[in-house]
Specification:
4 helices; 37 strands; 19-stranded mixed sheet; mainly beta; Elongation Factor Tu (Ef-tu), domain 3; 3 domains
Length: about 475
């Protein structure tokens, strides 16, 4: 009789306060996936020693590769938000939400004109992608891209299906939270010198005046504490709740009760280099699990193709690996796998804008590959890597289009290496999803050719993004909610 063969594999994660340090306390989130290849794989060298009986003398572990891939259907879930954030080496932020007294859509002029608005003062800028909502005509509740802006007028590139409309006063214009690669939104957050009181039983840090909320701290942040007399308290924590006067931190952080002297402060560094602990549980076996620590997102891919569900693929690199006697997840609360519907590449992909104009030709697929070109830092004295280092951003963009008059000029742009701006969004029926903006892509692809009998000619565009000098970024990803 054979034992049960495992097929129920759960992968869950928690954010680390310190790279590679596995904290026993704290809850976890299950990762939505189609498949995964996480592994701790030893680097093996066979002994070259020659012995008199001519028998092999064995092999030694001289290194350890920790990481792998996590593939999933793209959906607006917490885990995918977290991993995209980590892969972009940034932090979600920057949302602007306004409700103008009246807003008028003029589709001929491609303008949104507001009454009592201050679009520029509020922070809207050329290149921003903004979501419109609460319009009476459902076709106007879409995402558009700003091509010009004054205090009262936004000029946009948007869907040709939009119609003229004068709003009733409850319409909303939103620039969603976004990620610019390598930049933590808003830069460093610093509470300034405060008198801080730590209550480790309640897991709280309390200030006398000012506001953590106004400073910009948020749930999930990993700020650093400094200035405490007790050195153990000068460490990083994970925030689980934020109010004006009180920060609540994760149960896995063990500090010491202390009343400060006015020399303490809380600082969230500008470039947050996220890392995670992952647990792989084999649920149909008895207490069998694997743990991966210090996992960072080295690269990720977004793929949209007609006839398919949109997909995302993350490549992870880590610093630690364990086969625990008791699963790491034992006794923890694990947030159930997300149930949001996956995004449909055929029907959920909305507006595609190329060089500031809505495309009017047929697009069969779009893909995006963001690579941090991360390398392991391997030092003598330990088998596993000590750390990883991102050595620079690479962004590759692909787009398959049916050859038409409207896109034939891609050949000339390829020859001149003229940068092409590409923006698009994908969202479900409730408006949740992502928008992507790559403002400067230099193309390289094979010319259109005769496709053969009963075949249509297509262009398989591919290109490499560079930093746009006007917008001062290479790629931006918005979170539509």
């Amino acid at each position: 009789m054979c034992d049960m063969t495992s097929f129920k594999v759960r992968l869950s994660y928690k954010q680390e306060a310190t790279l590679g340090v596995i904290k026993s306390a704290g809850n976890m989130i299950e990762i939505r996936k189609t498949d995964e290849s996480m592994s701790g794989t030893p680097k093996i060298t066979e002994s070259a020693e020659v012995v008199s009986d001519a028998q092999p003398t064995g092999q030694l572990i001289v290194g350890l590769d920790v990481g792998g891939g996590i593939n999933a259907e793209l959906a607006p879930t917490v885990s995918q938000h977290d991993f995209i954030e980590a892969g972009m080496r940034s932090k979600w932020g920057g949302a602007i939400v306004i409700v103008p007294a009246v807003i008028v859509i003029d589709t001929a002029a491609k303008t949104l004109t507001g009454t009592l608005t201050t679009f520029v003062t509020d922070g809207f800028a050329v290149g921003d992608m903004v979501a419109l909502s609460n319009f009476a005509n459902a076709v106007n509740n879409v995402v558009v891209q700003i091509t010009a802006v004054t205090e009262t007028v936004i000029t946009y590139a948007g869907a040709s299906t939009m119609v003229d409309e004068t709003g009733g006063g409850d319409e909303v214009v939103t620039r969603p939270d976004y990620l610019d690669w390598g930049n933590r939104f808003g830069g460093e957050i610093d509470s300034g010198l405060q008198t801080l009181t730590i209550d480790n039983t309640a897991k709280t840090i309390t200030r006398d005046s000012g506001s953590f909320v106004t400073d910009g701290f948020a749930i999930g942040d990993q700020p650093l504490l400094s200035g405490f007399v007790t050195s153990k308290n000068n460490t990083s924590i994970i925030l689980t709740n934020v109010t004006a006067l009180v920060l609540t931190y994760d149960a896995g952080s063990v500090l010491v009760d202390e009343t400060g002297t006015g020399s303490e402060k809380v600082v969230l560094p500008a470039n947050t280099n996220f890392s995670f602990t992952l647990a792989k549980d084999f649920l149909d076996l008895t207490d069998k699990s694997l743990t991966y620590a210090g996992e960072r997102v080295g690269s990720f891919k977004l793929d949209f193709k007609y006839g398919s569900i949109a997909s995302v693929a993350f490549t992870m690199m880590g610093t630690g690996y364990e086969v625990p006697a008791t699963p790491f997840t034992t006794g923890k609360t694990i947030s159930a796998v997300a149930t949001e519907p996956a995004l449909n590449a055929s029907s959920d992909l909305g507006l595609v804008i190329v060089d500031g104009q809505q495309t009017n030709y047929c697009i069969e697929g779009i893909n995006l590959d963001i690579n941090n070109n991360m390398l392991p830092i391997e030092c003598m004295g330990a088998i596993a890597p000590k750390d990883q280092q991102a050595t620079g951003l690479s962004v590759n963009v692909g787009m398959d289009v049916f050859l038409q008059d409207a896109n034939f000029d891609f050949h000339a742009k390829k020859l001149a290496q003229t940068p092409v701006a590409i923006s698009y969004y994908v969202r479900d029926s409730s408006g949740r999803g992502y928008a992507v903006q790559v403002p400067a892509v230099q193309l390289s692809f094979s010319d259109a050719a005769g496709a053969g009998k009963r075949q249509l000619s297509k262009l398989s565009l591919s290109g490499v993004a560079k930093k746009d000098g006007t917008l001062n970024r290479t790629i931006r990803i918005y979170k539509l909610v």
